Amino acid sequence: MRAENGGHVVSPQDPLAAAMPVRRHATVRRVLCAPRMPAPLLPAATAEALMRSRYYCAFAMGDAAYLLRSWHPTTRPKALDLQQGPRWERLEIVATTGGGLLHVDGTVEFRAYYRTPDGSPGVMHEVSRFVREKGQWTYLDGHQF
Fold first, then answer.
1. What contacts 100, CB < 8 A, 6 or more positions away?
2. Regarding predicted confidence, which is higher, 30 or 45?
3. Cα 3 from chain centroid (whole Å)
4. Residues 73, 76, 81, 84: what is their CA dihedral angle, to the nearest 10 degrees?
5. How far is residue 31's CA from residue 90's CA, in Å, rounded to a whole number?
6. Comparing 40 with 123, which gets the higher pLDDT?
7. Can you give the residue range of the structural domain that contains 52?
8. Contact at 8 Å (CB) between 46 and 29?
9. Number of structural domains the chain divides into
10. What are phi and psi of 112, to 5 degrees?
């Protein structure tokens, strides 16, 4: 699913979307993470697509339910509270391994830029592991730097 944004066509898979601050993605957020609609509308085709949807729909939009649904059941926490967290501003995909249409596992290295409640900037740098079971990608775990 794609959405127009200031003359550019963007989607969670586009490098343009990853490079722009989240607060400028009002159209993308409405289309991909619309309230009262399942998020996302289609299952992620790759591990990177799932990473981007988790960032945009769950972290940036605060949809803890989607974050939990896209987490592997063997490592998923019982609950999440995203209300007290930082304001997520930008996602940068650094590297991927596997995670494609013909893979059953993969990794996505990323940097997620944020601001704390007091306005201080921060970066979360992680290599996330994903697995695909029964055609569905899920987040397994990650190693933060």
1. 46, 47, 106
2. 45
3. 17
4. -140
5. 18
6. 123
7. 3-144
8. no
9. 1
10. -115, 120
